[in-house]
Amino acid sequence: MDPKRYQRLKDLTQQALDLSLDARHDFLQQECGDDDELLRDVLRLLAHDSSKADELTAAALPGTRGLSGTTIGPYRIIQPLGEGGMGVVYLAAQGAPLRRQVALKVIKLGMDTKEVITRFESERQALALMDHPAIAKVLDAGATDEGRPYFVMEYISGVTLTHYCQQHHLGLRRRLELFIQVCRGVHHAHQKGVIHRDIKPSNVLVTEIEGKPVPKIIDFGVAKATGQHLAAQTIFTQLGRVVGTPEYM
């Protein structure tokens, strides 16, 4: 992460901690503007210092709180975790047959066009094909009572790749060890005929398993299929349309 951006992230987080929940909403909206990545990064840092992470996230991501407290299939929606172009990801609790926390992604209300649904279906099918420690696993899929598709992934309690490296003051060798794990995950996806097309620090979360850092690649929302098993569902990119994040292309 650029040193200036990292300093701004720390400053915004510290300033937000000194404000009430209501004031944080307006503050973050004003300071982050259209920079959704910065907003998500601030929220993740705030979550480590606040027992009310759900209020923080819901306040900073308007329109995502509508499902909180409701049930989708066997999953009880707890709080929004993040929002993308076509879907919202929620923290949810599964009660049966297993008791666990999961991440549930559902198409946004009003976004259920044929193109969006096709891309959404492609994302969950791509995830279902892959089985690698560095890629978030898909656990279940279905549709809401209103017919909006959703899929359920393992919940990753972690921070973005760059934040983990900064917080733990990792040296070059340990950073490269994490990077190699990410590369292995990307290679696995390529072997399955899936190109992510938006690999960047905010799409790699780092969690700890038995005290060791494990990176997890997330958000295959703009992935491209190269294999026949997925190509039939792939939406071809429009001519001249840029897919991905320019800073990391």
Can you walk me through this structure?
- This protein is α+β, with helices and mostly antiparallel strands.
- It folds into three domains: 3-60, no CATH class; 67-154, 2-Layer Sandwich (Phosphorylase Kinase, domain 1); 159-242, Transferase(Phosphotransferase) domain 1 (Transferase(Phosphotransferase), domain 1).
- It has helices at residues 3-17, 21-32, 36-47, 53-60, 114-129, 161-167, 172-191, 228-231; strands at residues 71-72, 75-83, 87-94, 100-107, 138-143, 149-154, 159-160, 194-195, 204-209, 212-217, 224-225.
- The strands form three sheets. It has a six-stranded antiparallel sheet with strand order 1-2-3-4-6-5.
- Strand 2 (75-83) and strand 3 form a beta hairpin.
- Helix 1 packs across helix 3 and helix 3 (36-47) packs antiparallel against helix 4 (53-60).
- The radius of gyration is 18 Å and the shape is globular.
- The model is unreliable at 50-57, 59-64 and 234-242 (pLDDT under 50).
